[in-house]
């Protein structure tokens, strides 16, 4: 106890009644949580007099702990004095429903001034306490002084629980305290080295403490706030997560089940009373990284082009996790490689966002404890442009009684209204027509129109129309009849050199099971010997002769210059590069790349 020369010394007796498991433990469910009143009591006593500090607890428990401010170890636990100061004594007894536990200090001195605590904890881990400030005066004789405090809780105006802490100062001539010595004992085997224990949250922890108790020493465990957890093998608090299983005779290790982050701190294993020794065990809790959803950005955000976008990933964990950000395109599969973003904070800001910055953003948090945590956030940038149309074929020839498929590819944002028109009427799915819409990629769709069992009335111009709020566009193609008889035309009326007409390379896209025609027209002198070579570089046709064993291939000649390759009921294996050329002049040729798609995408 620290000595002071101020005549107005204060001892605060803080009464905290510690409730253990027992018959009275269920009273809090009936009467609710008590309150402390009044907050402080002042007591004055003359130096060298005796002081008796009683603590009375009604209905709340049976074990009372006395402490003094500034000391790590308690002074008493129940009837046990946990100090080598022989001037202190305690007497705890049960009278009716009250537990009374007085702390007596013989021959008080100015060193005894300070704040004392009488502590009690409830069966709900709520610690109750009260303090009394004691002034020690030199050479002033006073009579008996009482100071009392009460802690009460009423329930329906009855069944009052009263927590009474009274301070009784008795006069008397007790002599001097100075020179009082405790008995000397041989020091026990007790390792006081500071120990650090690290445990992952929700795992079990063991805080080591070993001591030989042959001489009747007592062992006390206190939590980081100084409250008593165990007294010898007895658990003082109500929580059954704390225990001392005593695996060996000298083992007094404290076990904590399913540790929480709030359990972190320095625990004290103390022995006493002669001597009083203490071992500090610091418990460190590691918590795996976690992303708090309700404090993070939503998983889907729609913004306008040019906006500022703020993405937040609220991360918790012990130690503090590191955060990394990634991005991938919306059109990419989940297995696609993510692109790392050079940002390592919980918040990412995208200024003036463009359509090229939308996609799937992912934040990952990791602190080396367990697995990493991640969160996906989709950012959709709203922008727009009028539709654009592409028709793979502007002319399609077919015979009466056959089916044919028209295709229209549209790019637009937002994706637009799209339909086919024939002779001023919209074509809709019926016994005559089959209309299919399929995905062609980002901001692109395709519309196919299958015409069943062609008749003379079905030949003519078909128009594909696409619209959105930015504008509209249309494109037309012609379906014509393949004639069985053709007008004889001059082979080369202008006596021009042989040539392959049209673009030297074209791309065509057809649906599975659709009939298609690969175009090839030539000017020539004499017999041209026009041929077709397939994707496997095998010869398919020479003039009108078909060399392929596949009967789906044939030569279609709407005019004298046409050497079109017809493929009935296209299959996925038909995709590839087809070449039309003139045998007499290998440099004259036309390349057609055929792409085959499924009917529904």
TrEMBL record:
<keyword id="KW-1003">Cell membrane</keyword>
<dbReference type="InterPro" id="IPR003599">
    <property type="entry name" value="Ig_sub"/>
</dbReference>
<keyword id="KW-0393">Immunoglobulin domain</keyword>
<feature type="domain" description="Ig-like">
    <location>
        <begin position="188"/>
        <end position="282"/>
    </location>
</feature>
<keyword id="KW-0677">Repeat</keyword>
<dbReference type="InterPro" id="IPR013783">
    <property type="entry name" value="Ig-like_fold"/>
</dbReference>
<protein>
    <submittedName>
        <fullName>Cell adhesion molecule 2</fullName>
    </submittedName>
</protein>
<keyword id="KW-1015">Disulfide bond</keyword>
<dbReference type="InterPro" id="IPR036179">
    <property type="entry name" value="Ig-like_dom_sf"/>
</dbReference>
<feature type="domain" description="Ig-like">
    <location>
        <begin position="387"/>
        <end position="480"/>
    </location>
</feature>
<feature type="domain" description="Ig-like">
    <location>
        <begin position="34"/>
        <end position="135"/>
    </location>
</feature>
<dbReference type="InterPro" id="IPR007110">
    <property type="entry name" value="Ig-like_dom"/>
</dbReference>
<dbReference type="InterPro" id="IPR013098">
    <property type="entry name" value="Ig_I-set"/>
</dbReference>
<keyword id="KW-0472">Membrane</keyword>
<dbReference type="Pfam" id="PF07686">
    <property type="entry name" value="V-set"/>
</dbReference>
<dbReference type="InterPro" id="IPR013106">
    <property type="entry name" value="Ig_V-set"/>
</dbReference>
<dbReference type="GO" id="GO:0005886">
    <property type="term" value="C:plasma membrane"/>
</dbReference>
<dbReference type="Pfam" id="PF07679">
    <property type="entry name" value="I-set"/>
</dbReference>
<dbReference type="InterPro" id="IPR003598">
    <property type="entry name" value="Ig_sub2"/>
</dbReference>
<dbReference type="Pfam" id="PF13927">
    <property type="entry name" value="Ig_3"/>
</dbReference>
<keyword id="KW-0325">Glycoprotein</keyword>
<dbReference type="InterPro" id="IPR051170">
    <property type="entry name" value="Neural/epithelial_adhesion"/>
</dbReference>
<feature type="domain" description="Ig-like">
    <location>
        <begin position="288"/>
        <end position="382"/>
    </location>
</feature>
<feature type="signal peptide">
    <location>
        <begin position="1"/>
        <end position="32"/>
    </location>
</feature>
<keyword id="KW-0732">Signal</keyword>
<dbReference type="GO" id="GO:0043005">
    <property type="term" value="C:neuron projection"/>
</dbReference>
<feature type="domain" description="Ig-like">
    <location>
        <begin position="498"/>
        <end position="593"/>
    </location>
</feature>
């Amino acid at each position: 106890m620290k000595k002071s020369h101020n005549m107005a010394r204060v001892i605060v007796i803080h009464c905290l009644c510690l409730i253990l498991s027992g018959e009275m433990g269920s009273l809090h469910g009936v009467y609710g949580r008590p309150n402390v009143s009044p907050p402080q009591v002042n007591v004055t006593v003359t130096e060298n007099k005796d002081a008796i500090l009683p603590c009375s607890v009604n209905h709340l428990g049976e074990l009372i702990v006395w402490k003094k401010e500034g000391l790590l170890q308690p002074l008493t636990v129940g009837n046990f004095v946990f100090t080598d100061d022989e001037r202190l004594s305690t007497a705890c007894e049960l009278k009716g429903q009250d537990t009374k536990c007085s702390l007596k200090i013989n021959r008080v001195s100015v060193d005894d001034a300070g704040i004392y605590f009488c502590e009690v904890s409830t069966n709900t881990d709520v610690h109750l306490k009260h303090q009394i400030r004691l002034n020690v005066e030199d050479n002033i004789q006073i009579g008996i002084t009482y100071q009392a405090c009460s802690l009460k809780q009423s329930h329906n105006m009855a069944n009052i629980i009263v927590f009474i802490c009274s301070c009784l100062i008795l006069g008397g001539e007790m002599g001097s305290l100075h020179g009082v010595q405790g008995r000397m004992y041989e020091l026990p085997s007790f390792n006081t080295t500071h120990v650090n224990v690290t445990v992952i949250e929700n795992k079990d922890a063991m805080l080591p403490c070993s001591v030989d108790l042959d001489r009747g020493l007592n062992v006390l465990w206190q939590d980081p706030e100084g409250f008593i957890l165990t007294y010898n093998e007895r658990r003082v608090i109500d929580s059954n997560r704390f225990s001392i299983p005593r695996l060996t005779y000298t083992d007094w290790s404290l076990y904590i089940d399913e540790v929480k982050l709030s359990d972190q701190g320095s625990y004290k294993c103390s022995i006493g009373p002669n001597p009083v020794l203490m071992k500090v065990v610091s418990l460190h809790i590691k918590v795996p990284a976690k992303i708090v959803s309700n404090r993070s950005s939503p998983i889907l955000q729609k913004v306008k082009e040019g906006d500022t976008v703020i993405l937040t990933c609220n991360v918790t964990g012990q130690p503090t996790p590191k955060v990394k950000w990634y991005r991938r395109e919306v059109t990419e599969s989940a297995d696609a490689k993510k692109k790392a973003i050079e940002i390592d904070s919980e918040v990412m800001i995208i200024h003036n966002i463009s359509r090229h910055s939308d996609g799937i953003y992912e934040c990952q948090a990791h602190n080396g404890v367990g697995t990493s945590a991640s969160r996906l956030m989709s950012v959709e940038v709203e922008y727009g442009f009028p539709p654009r149309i592409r028709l793979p074929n502007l002319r399609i020839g077919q015979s009466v009684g056959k089916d044919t498929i028209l295709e229209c590819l549209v790019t637009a944002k937002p994706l637009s209204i799209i339909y086919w028109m024939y002779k001023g009427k919209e074509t809709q799915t019926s016994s005559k027509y089959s209309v299919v819409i399929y995905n062609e990629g980002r901001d692109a769709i395709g519309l196919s129109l299958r015409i069943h069992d062609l008749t003379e009335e079905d030949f003519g111009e078909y128009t594909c129309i696409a619209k959105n709020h930015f504008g509209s566009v249309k494109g037309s193609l012609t379906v014509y009849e393949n004639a069985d008889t053709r007008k004889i035309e001059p082979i080369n009326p202008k006596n021009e050199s042989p040539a392959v007409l049209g673009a030297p390379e074209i791309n065509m896209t057809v649906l599975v099971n659709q009939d298609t025609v690969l175009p090839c027209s030539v000017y020539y002198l004499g017999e041209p010997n026009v041929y077709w070579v397939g994707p496997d570089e095998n010869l398919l046709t020479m003039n009108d002769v078909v060399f392929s064993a596949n009967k789906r291939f044939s030569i279609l000649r709407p005019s004298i210059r046409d050497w079109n390759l017809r493929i009935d009921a296209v299959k996925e294996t038909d995709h590839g590069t087809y070449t039309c050329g003139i045998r007499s002049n290998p440099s004259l040729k036309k390349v057609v790349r055929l792409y085959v798609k499924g009917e529904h995408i």
